[in-house]
Amino acid sequence: MPRTIALVEDDAAIRENYTVALKNQGYQVQTYADRPSATEAFSRELPDLAIIDIGLNEEMEGGFMLCQQLRQLSQSLPIIFFTARDNDVDTICGLRMGADDYLTKDISMAHLLARIAALFRRTDLLAAPKEHSEQIRIGHLNVDVSRMKVTWQSIPVSLTVTEFWMLHALIRHPGHVKSRQQLMDESRMVVDDSTITSHIKRMRKKFVELDPSFDHIDTVYGMGYRWQA
After folding, report:
1. Which pTM value belongs to this model?
2. According to a count of CB atoms within 10 Å of the terminal CB, is the N or C end of the chain lower?
3. Does 139 lie in the same domain as 29?
4. CATH code at 98?
């Protein structure tokens, strides 16, 4: 059955161009020009992936609001911000809202399709049958890889799909430094360095909110990151 992608974009020409391109790749596409119409549709049925512009008509932050609403409905739904606003503040805000990726509209269609495919490859692992649940335990950390569930001191940690696989890449070899490229390769991502940094910061913050003394995700300047047991 074809995957369903929701495209929330207020520019009619852009909406049409990307709809055609996505349909040519075999995806079903649902389009929305504003947040209210998308919110109504998502309350009835969720897509398999959502691509959202930040500014939606009169709502300059409409995409951020929609992302928050989607995250309340599903923690695992892949969400991509696709916007002309290219600055660190918007990027970090978008990722903190729970998006899995943040892309600017000057990227190539091939690049966008590669990131969509990478997100779908990760979510496929959720649906794959597992005879045995793979568990990773390191101190207070417990990761159920098969179910993509994480707990710290027995308290659930709400990670996005991207954050989960980045954490998994770090904890496979505790103490070993993972470069940004290795994190991309092992967590099946296609993102740039600034996006990796934003994901790490957001993931670290989620652990610190549960445990202020948390200090297990180290930044090794000039090299990458590691999980310090």
Report:
1. 0.69
2. N
3. no
4. 3.40.50.2300
